[in-house]
Amino acid sequence: MPVVAGNAVHKGKRSASTPLAQVVKASPKQLIDSFLKMAIDLCRAGTTGLSLLETNSTGEQGFRWTNLTGKLATCVGGTTPRNFSPCGIALDYNAPQLFAYPGRYFQYFNQLEVPIVDGFGHSVSHKHGDRRHCLDPFP
């Protein structure tokens, strides 16, 4: 019987759980990065990451990239504004948001050498090429 795409994805998710359990046992601090690395494989993404909502000393909110895996891994610590970002819109609608070429809407993404093709707000994974430098529009 041929394997349909849904079954292949389910098998990939199931096979990912064993290494995660091993990471939790051996090095729990590495759990997030291990999970993000698995998301790269399962989603065929160039970068996956985790950002946290923060408020700076002037009261402005923004998302700080606390964990990034893949081609933008060196951009950990970079930020995007709360009121003008894929993650911010996802929070506003209380639902994940997928953006094709998010640089068309969020100009600061165009600072990258190669455009981000897909950007998923809330739980973010990006498909793109090599990057030249990181973004930080929210100091």
What topology does this entry show?
Blueprint: H1 5-26, H2 31-43, E1 47-55, E2 61-70, E3 79-81, H3 86-93, E4 97-100, E5 118-121, E6 124-127
Antiparallel strand pairs: 1-2, 1-6, 2-3, 4-5, 5-6
Looking at this protein, list some descriptive labels:
alpha+beta; about 140 residues; about 30% helix; disordered C terminus; six-stranded antiparallel sheet
* Low-pLDDT segments: 1-5, 123-127, 129-139
| Beta-strand content estimate | 15-25%
Structural class by secondary-structure content? alpha+beta
Order of SSEs, N→C?
Answer: HHEEEHEEE
Helix content: 25-40%
Number of helices: 3
Shape: globular
Quote the average pLDDT: 75
Radius of gyration: 16 Å
Largest sheet features: 6 strands, antiparallel
Q: What's the β-strand tally?
A: 6
Short structural summary:
The chain is an alpha+beta fold and 139 residues long.
Verbal overview:
The structure is a single chain. With 139 residues, the protein is α+β, with helices and mostly antiparallel strands. The chain folds into 2 domains: 1-44; 45-139, no CATH class. 31% of the residues lie in helices and 24% in strands. The protein has helices at residues 5-26, 31-43, 86-93, and strands at residues 47-55, 61-70, 79-81, 97-100, 118-121, 124-127. β5 (118-121) and β6 form a beta hairpin. α1 runs antiparallel to α2. The longest helix has 22 residues, at 5-26.
